[in-house]
Design goal:
Elements: E1 17-23, E2 30-35, E3 41-48, H1 55-60, E4 62-69, E5 77-80, E6 86-94, H2 95-99, E7 116-118, E8 144-151, E9 154-160, E10 170-177, H3 184-187, E11 191-197, E12 202-205, E13 212-222, E14 237-244, E15 251-255, E16 283-290, E17 293-299, E18 309-315, E19 332-338, E20 343-346, E21 356-362, E22 378-380, H4 392-400, H5 402-413, H6 450-457, H7 464-475, H8 481-497, H9 501-508, H10 511-516, H11 518-533
Antiparallel strand pairs: 1-2, 2-5, 3-4, 3-6, 6-7, 8-9, 9-12, 10-11, 10-13, 13-14, 14-15, 16-17, 17-20, 18-19, 18-21, 21-22
Length: 537
């Protein structure tokens, strides 16, 4: 049978053209090629053991999937691998035509008339998704720009494909988890939702029934090759707050907010680059003077679990030479701290000319990495920072309250701390550190700080509107991660108390808030999500 001479492309813009089926060199696989219809949409690829020359035959044929048609990423080819012996015919039709029962079929245009015969073989070759033909260039390995939106009561996940993804060959696997998907141990906790073939670049999750926080991720593989795991945060995996409205048939999807912009354009902050694959680093390291000692705080890496451990090091030289900065006589390990603790208190430091502190990270699956960045994962301690000579009146007041002073000292002494450290590394001497603990809890007196003054005068007195006003002004000028996290937490709680749950969630999902108090932040996040699910905005 020849091509249908009655086919006129202008009259039938929804019909695919020049469909061709070719058997590959492995004798078990077929490649389809066609020119897409002018009308955009989705096409269905159908397969049958008899010619698909009527609409009725099309409706009962095997469907090989739905694929986007038209545009730069539209489907133009398809690989049908590892076929059993038999005779095969194919057809390509627009989904919208099938739904409207308006399918038009033209021989050698949108259906094949020449059968492809897969014959029996004497041997039983091993099944492979990599047939014996010149391989196509592999895609880059990861999808990009993963997005999540609400679709009625469901969540639609979409993504941009790798640069060289191929229809029928590139496969996307969609995962969902209650934990991040950026390490292999965490990936083991994930639920595999589905596999879809390129050029499909979205998936509708219809299985969520209640408000919750979930992580979605999409991996890439070629045929039956290996998946590209683990995934890349905010590129191939995303955190989603799913808010189910109980009083209506819809839901709200809130994705993780972007990082806070620098409120002072004249003040530069170090650029924090994503961790290279297989490494972990802290971010936003900083410190506060507390008497003769110091409280240092930091933000954990984007991905942490129960095995994450921080190591605090001290040195008289910057930690800018990689592993050489941690050699014998160069640095001393002051403490090891288990996540979620992200702070450490040293009761007293003796002044020396130069003193640096750095923090490394490791977990059960990722080794410690010693490539630190200044003011990101290590800092120079300034002995003159925040030192104010007390006035005579302040000294007199302090002398009049010996019991209160002793009480404060008792509170501090009950915390994990390092006794006075004498760092003398100039002669390659080792450092003797007394009182080092494997876990460190920090509670220090900030009763006279601006933040606690705000909280005492507003939040503690249940003046939540005033608390929101003053805290929003405070976070614009605060740079210290520990104090910023505390402000975010109470700002989120204040918005929740005022009934604005969406604004509350905006601040509670900040990394700084989670680092300041993971338990309280999770508690209030769940409270807010529950209120949102009941329709309280």
């Amino acid at each position: 049978m020849l091509a249908d001479n009655s086919f006129d492309e202008k009259k039938f813009p929804s019909v695919a053209k020049l469909l061709r089926a070719t058997q590959l060199a492995d004798k078990r696989s077929i490649i389809l090629n066609w020119d897409p219809p002018k009308d955009e949409g989705e096409v269905i690829i159908a397969r049958s053991n008899s010619m698909i020359d009527t609409a009725e035959k099309l409706f009962i044929a095997d469907s090989l999937g739905r694929y986007k048609s038209g545009g730069p990423n539209g489907a133009k080819s398809f690989y049908d691998y590892n076929l059993k012996p038999g005779t095969y015919y194919y057809a390509v039709a627009l989904v919208s035509d099938i739904r409207k029962r308006e399918v038009k079929l033209f021989a050698n245009q949108n259906y094949t008339i020449t059968p492809i015969v897969i014959e029996e073989t004497e041997t039983n070759p091993s099944i492979s998704n990599t047939p014996d033909f010149d391989p196509l260039p592999l895609p880059s390995g990861f999808i990009r720009d993963i997005q999540a939106i609400s679709e009625n009561n469901f969540i639609r996940i979409s993504w941009n494909p790798p640069a060289r993804a191929t229809a029928g060959r590139t496969i996307y696997t969609i995962y969902r988890s209650n934990s991040p998907l950026t390490t292999l141990p965490l990936m083991q906790k994930a639920t595999k939702l589905a596999e879809v073939g390129h050029p499909t670049n979205s998936f509708l999750d219809q299985s969520l029934e209640k408000s919750q926080t979930v992580y979605y991720g999409v991996s890439v593989k070629e045929g039956k090759g290996e998946e590209t795991l683990p995934l890349v945060d905010k590129e191939s995996t995303i955190r989603v707050f799913y808010v189910r409205n109980k009083n209506s048939d819809d839901a709200e999807v809130i994705t993780e907010s972007s990082p806070v912009s620098n409120p002072n354009p004249n003040k530069t902050t170090p650029e924090v680059k994503p961790d290279p694959p297989g490494t972990l680093h802290v971010r936003g390291i900083g410190y506060e003077r507390v008497g003769k000692g110091v409280v240092m705080t930091w933000l954990g890496p984007e991905v942490t679990d129960g095995s994450t451990v921080y190591s605090v090091y001290a040195s008289t030289r910057p930690f800018n030479a990689g592993t050489q900065s941690f050699g014998p006589g160069m640095a001393v390990k002051v403490a090891s701290i288990n996540h979620p603790k992200t702070s450490f208190y040293i009761k007293e430091l003796k002044p020396i000319e130069d003193l640096y502190f750095g923090v490394t990270v490791k977990s059960s699956s990722i080794d410690e990495d010693f490539n630190l960045s200044e003011n990101v994962s290590y800092f120079r301690f300034d002995f003159d920072k925040d030192l104010v000579v007390p006035s005579r009146e302040e000294v007199a007041k302090q002398e009049q309250k010996p019991n209160e002073t002793e009480k404060k000292q008792e509170v501090v002494s009950n915390q994990s701390y390092v006794a006075p450290v004498d760092l003398k590394l100039k002669d390659e001497e080792s450092i003797s550190v007394q009182g080092t603990h494997s876990q460190s809890t920090v509670v220090f007196d900030t009763s006279d700080s601006d933040l606690d003054l705000i909280l005492r005068e507003t939040f503690m007195k249940k003046k939540f509107e005033l608390a929101v006003y003053q805290l929003e002004s405070y976070i614009k000028r605060e740079k210290h991660g520990h104090l910023l996290g505390k402000a975010y937490l109470f700002l989120g709680i204040s918005h929740s108390k005022l009934g604005d749950q969406r604004k509350a969630l905006k601040y509670l999902q900040k990394n700084e808030a989670k680092s300041f108090s993971p338990e309280r932040t999770d508690f209030w996040t769940n409270q807010v999500l529950e209120k949102l699910s009941r329709g309280k905005s």
